[in-house]
Amino acid sequence: MGALPGLSEILAARAALLLRRDSALGRVRGTTEVIMPNFIELKKIEQADEPVTVEASLEIAPADLDHDDIESISDAKIAVAASKGAGPGEFLFQGTFAFTAAIACARCLDPVPFANRSEFAVTFRPHPSVGGADDPEIEIGEGDLDVEYYSEPHVALEQLAGEQIELALPMRIVCAESCLGLCPRCGANLNRGACGCEPEPVDERWQALSDLRDKIKKEEK
Ligand SMILES: [Zn+2]
Ligand SMILES: [Zn+2]
Questions:
Q1: In angstroms, what is the span from residue 137 Cα to ligand 1's centroid?
Q2: Least confident of 139-143, 168-172, 197-201
Q3: DSSP 171
Q4: What DSSP state is assigned to residue 72?
Q5: Residue 175 Cα to ligand 2 middle (Å)
Q6: Is the dihedral of CA 116, 117, 120, 126 positive or negative?
């Protein structure tokens, strides 16, 4: 069995790509991580008779997420089985992912532990711009969460995991339904006891509105 032709070139190109991408993100990684299987080559899926399976543990930074209340997040464990889809150039990515995070309570800002384990199924279709075929019939539906369009010959697992994490994160989390939040005056966490501030005075304009509402109610009776 001869050596795979051009394999070292492919690996070198991939390493260069990963390094370039990571330095663009401000992170420089050691050479050991550069060869991590963070990409699934679509060609590999096309050529395989069985689904291509990959398991990876991906480093996700809170800053990479579109949620500003994430204090910390664990590595995302992702397991993917990628297979050919029904349509031309279509690929089906199915799998599971899991992560834990600490999310700031929406009222008192204390970190609240959050754990998620979910399944996903995403169909990748060629982006209409790929191959130059400008098909006006193809419309990219923004609401269709389970369909994505690729323009590169590979799918990045970090992007896939990042998207799934975004979907799994709650819009808002509270440490407890009874959370008292922060004092609007001094910012003290009221769950740890009263801060001694005077209660907020009721605005007289709101009081006038309240009186009016009471009056209308009486008149309705
Ligand atoms: Zn709270
Ligand atoms: Zn206070």
A1: 49
A2: 139-143
A3: S
A4: E
A5: 20
A6: positive
